[in-house]
């Protein structure tokens, strides 16, 4: 658990110079700003372990820098992802630290949990065909909390695009096919989180600080220098660097996933354990399964909607929790999930939900110390709680939920499955009310 201390330091360090409320991915009106956390960092986290895979690049993919450089960086990103916004200055720092040695290629990976990510990607594509991708890219990230059709149009006007042509491209979804190609490429590479970036085909997940990835970058530059001394240059140099890394850092072969269980009509059957955290009557006609992550700001924002549904329909709705910690971008998600599980071990569903509430209410202060503090406040045996936090059994339980979610097509949080129907947060209340009406009508 000592590892968590430097991870917390990483998160705090990454947001230096960025408004604190951006930590939530843009807490709109009515959302209190996060509290600053006093942390004494003990240095940057270690360099990430990498695997490697060949990444397909189109000739007209958005790029900058010299093609066939010593450091070829391909970035899978999302314009609405707050972690992607934090990665942007890190990428600029890399380009400044290795002048004339970095070639950057952009790939779209709009996540389903970000409703404006896909429209923003299509806006960037509409700008690309007019030769202004990077100008639009900068406008989108600098206005991440205001992404909207109105912003895309004003940004297009400001960067000098042919506005009629731009609007026509958006209306016809001209860029959709290219975005879909990038999504397909990401899936083939096992990329499911943003930002994920490849340095000479070496895969790095997350917005690691410059100091942590510098050893990888320096290693790649040394290899490039050696190959250049042997006569390699341009595209041949890039190909040789990738080929070498794929050989050195092979990715594990993906195992064939078992087909997800299904119900009539293609609905998803979500297996439940007898002791899964649940609220509501077992006889309720509507079961709402939530795959969630305690560090995900969008999950925190969805919680009031879930509670409103529970309070409005106490006889008709049962809520079941499933863990889906996005460990590549939320370093405290797994420890927080284990804290909730450790509470469940001592007090069943009641203590789980009590810990659940504390974790979401204090989302900006997740840490080893706060988990123990909450356990004490809930009247748990703290010694047993700390022992359970390190339990392989509890970690396996959390991972089992994540694997189930992946089999069901969950790739972001929160994801809701209501009586087998996958639903986004925006349509949750409407879907629940429809299913309740159907149940009452005897359908």
Describe this structure as you would to a colleague:
There is one protein chain. The chain folds into two domains: about 45-250, 3-Layer(aba) Sandwich (Glutaredoxin); about 260-440, Glutaredoxin (3-Layer(aba) Sandwich). Helix content is about 45%, strand content about 10%. The protein is built from 15 helices and twelve strands. The strands form three sheets. Strands 1-3-2-4-5 form a five-stranded mixed beta sheet. A five-stranded mixed beta sheet has the order 8-10-9-11-12. A hairpin with a 2-residue loop joins strand 4 (about 195-200) and strand 5 (about 200-205).
What's the gist of this structure?
With 443 residues, the protein is α+β, with helices and mostly antiparallel strands.
Q: Quickly count the helices.
A: 15
CATH topology of the largest domain: Glutaredoxin
Strand order of the largest sheet: 1-3-2-4-5
CATH class of the largest domain: Alpha Beta
